[in-house]
Amino acid sequence: MVSKKSLYDVLGLSRDATAADITRVYRRLALQYHPDRNPEGAAKFKEISNAYSVLSDEKDRRTYDATGIVPGAASGRGDEMSESQRSAEMQQRVHQFYATYAGSHEEEEDVIERFKKCKGNFGRMIREELLFDNGKVEEVKRLQDLVRSLVKRGSLESTEAWEITSTEAARKRIERAMAKERKRAVETLDAMGLSTKKSGAGSMQELQAIISRNQEKQWADMLGNLEEKYVKRKNVAEEHAGKKKKREQQESASAPRKKTKK
Question: Which Pfam families does the entry mention (predicted)?
Answer without folding.
Answer: DnaJ (PF00226), HTH_DNAJC9 (PF23302)
